[in-house]
Description:
The complex is a heterodimer of chains A (about 240) and B (about 800). By secondary structure, chain A is of the alpha/beta class. Chain A contains seven helices and ten strands. In chain B, strand 3 and strand 4 form a beta hairpin. Chain B has three domains: about 60-250, no CATH class; about 430-470 and about 645-788, no CATH class; about 470-645, no CATH class. In chain B, strands 3-4-9-6-8-7 form a six-stranded mixed beta barrel. Chain B starts with a helix and ends with a helix.
Amino acid sequence: xxxxxxxxxxxxxxxxxxxxxxxxxxxxxxxxxxxxxxxxxxxxxxxxxxxxxxxxxxxxxxxxxxxxxxxxxxxxxxxxxxxxxxxxxxxxxxxxxxxxxxxxxxxxxxxxxxxxxxxxxxxxxxxxxxxxxxxxxxxxxxxxxxxxxxxxxxxxxxxxxxxxxxxxxxxxxxxxxxxxxxxxxxxxxxxxxxxxxxxxxxxxxxxxxxxxxxxxxxxxxxxxxxxxxxxxxxxxxxxxxxxx
Amino acid sequence: xxxxxxxxxxxxxxxxxxxxxxxxxxxxxxxxxxxxxxxxxxxxxxxxxxxxxxxxxxxxxxxxxxxxxxxxxxxxxxxxxxxxxxxxxxxxxxxxxxxxxxxxxxxxxxxxxxxxxxxxxxxxxxxxxxxxxxxxxxxxxxxxxxxxxxxxxxxxxxxxxxxxxxxxxxxxxxxxxxxxxxxxxxxxxxxxxxxxxxxxxxxxxxxxxxxxxxxxxxxxxxxxxxxxxxxxxxxxxxxxxxxxxxxxxxxxxxxxxxxxxxxxxxxxxxxxxxxxxxxxxxxxxxxxxxxxxxxxxxxxxxxxxxxxxxxxxxxxxxxxxxxxxxxxxxxxxxxxxxxxxxxxxxxxxxxxxxxxxxxxxxxxxxxxxxxxxxxxxxxxxxxxxxxxxxxxxxxxxxxxxxxxxxxxxxxxxxxxxxxxxxxxxxxxxxxxxxxxxxxxxxxxxxxxxxxxxxxxxxxxxxxxxxxxxxxxxxxxxxxxxxxxxxxxxxxxxxxxxxxxxxxxxxxxxxxxxxxxxxxxxxxxxxxxxxxxxxxxxxxxxxxxxxxxxxxxxxxxxxxxxxxxxxxxxxxxxxxxxxxxxxxxxxxxxxxxxxxxxxxxxxxxxxxxxxxxxxxxxxxxxxxxxxxxxxxxxxxxxxxxxxxxxxxxxxxxxxxxxxxxxxxxxxxxxxxxxxxxxxxxxxxxxxxxxxxxxxxxxxxxxxxxxxxxxxxxxxxxxxxxxxxxxxxxxxxxxxxxxxxxxxxxxxxxxxxxxxxxxxxxxxxxxxxxxxxxxxxxxxxxxxxxxxxx
Lengths: 244, 788
């Protein structure tokens, strides 16, 4: 059904990456994390970037999110060239357009769930109230808990609330379930799916867990710093239907 | 940014131990700064108000005797504003129930009007009525020392006549804030007093009717005191003028100025040390905090916080810690300043204390402290702010270790694994280890200079009264006396030895530099007074030529042995002669010029005359001999040595030791602050490593050894370095405090080294205890679960 929608209104390209290369200089050795990646991400889709560890998926995500710079190649975000943006422009880009979800949640341990979200909503305009965002991920009852008082899955849901609270155009998730058991992981994926569906946020999830690929609109496989295959998912599954 | 501010408060609470330790060091720096400057400022303010309200004169001169009519001629000298003549005379006092010799100075009050210059400040009662015969006002310290109140009577001997005087008032004077009896070095309120009396009866007793022997002046605005002094000297020459001098050379004022100058030095030296240590600690602690919050910083940046936002966040944290230290330091400093100023007020008999905490002092404390704190954390904050988010997300790369120099030298097998870890950890961050060592050494040095002052004073006492001046009593004559007086003294019952000398008031000059003092003519074969060089060897007095105190020769006159100085005698026929300098001595109290007595008599074109005698007397006979001497005409005063020593100690105890106590306390703060913070940071850096070792089966004692062994090693290294710093700092202070009044010798007793090292080790022990408790709480599972 989604497929047919797209045929009616051609999808808008959010990210357009061309020839992305990243080389880490580790002193005596050089690590090629990305070797000429070409990639497009479209508005509103949920993409899973699948690959084993060391395939370059985190590096790709970091470059798309303006956290890291490419050694060569270009990234266009809505036609603006990120790869040539200044530090200040990248900060504004992240502030206004991107939400991140990390494998280890990266909550500020000294702030409560509500405050962790507030830390982000305070610096942007048009954000949801922190309570609203937490409600959306099913954490409305644990607003005043510190990260140390929350389970891993709860922490990750707070992290998702923090990422979506500012209504970002894109949500970039780096192994969001990597540190969780499958049951908790599914709850977290449901929260991501809700955000994608209800807010229309373009969502990219990187994972090495092939099962998760079944909930994506498209699956992009990475290996050795290169894109192996791009598949459109004909039969998207709901997170609850997944298992691993 | 409200959420971030909340994070800041919670971070601060989390690191409260370290923040408090840094705060303490800051309190040390700020409070010494505020204490010294506020005490200085308040005393200077009080002094200037006191001087101006009591019309403290600007030029002073003593002379033998001049007719009152000369006062009018003095008043017409260009530059002179007001003139007041006085009669000042020595007096011997009998205090019932007090056997020690008590002397005093009688100071006349004008006969017809109120005093215009050097006006006594009345504490109670009133000034003597102008024409009264027997009324006196007594200096406050003397009255307090003996419990005199207005209405009491005082038995005195004036020129050999016993008289009973009535105390009508208790007073103070800017002229005698630091009043010392002739022949003594330090104030002794029990044995020396100032007595104000009507001019007429005083003049009558001393045959000074219609005459004066002391004159004070104030100057017109813009007048040069040097010119007035030259003209005044010329005028007073034929009346036995002893050489006029400006306020800057007035003894009491000189002493006050020196004391205030020392406070100013303290206000610089101590805060520099404290604040640099605080800056270092902030650097270490904030640096560590940034390292632990790497991923938090990266996350915040990922969500759009800018580099500036992050920098501001950590700067705020630094400012919060600094602000607490500053506020507490200012309060503590103001409190100590009041205490210190009160010690000075009592010691120097200020009539009142106008305490103020100048906003300027607070402002400079704030700006200096903030500058130090921000300079110390600049690097850490920059590192935090500049961290690229992608890099921050990655775990910190494992630190690079390597075999240490000791191991590479082939000693590998000698050390156990834990010991090797200690060495490698130190060698990996050598600068940090060095700074830690320097921080602790500075604490050690502060503790040392505190005790150094006590040691030096002990040595001065030992030198002055144990080696140099070995007499039991000093007898001073009112005027040059034939040498045969020595025989009458030695015939006194109980006198075992006598040594006589001649004192001639003179101005010594070389080139454009000069100093007004007394030249001392001594005899050979002395056993009571030794004139010593730096190696404590007797300096021989040449047949013709001067021996000068080293400080007088080098620092004040700029002469070396072989040069000739001009000696301008200020009594008698006032001859002027050139005398070569033969040698220099090493003396700590006052400055002296010695020559042979007969050579001096010859230059003075007089017979064998003497001015004073030292006596060695049989034990316990001092007071008896004193009683016999005190009614003797021509004997101006007698000083008993034992009392001189005790008064010396009392004086030093009060002033220096107050400061010493405060700095010792604060030195302890530094030591603890450095050791504690370094250990806490090390614990935070290595918690995972230590927990892993625990999991592998190491005991708590073994991991404590790895952590505390390193701190212990650094502490041990800091102690000898601290000794070196301590010696350097002591030498600096000894140099800064030099004056013609005294020089502090660089003497540090072994006990001082031991005490300073002891306090450093104690800080380490306290820290070890606190860390031990932290190690007990090390959560093995939790630590290992955290991501690497």
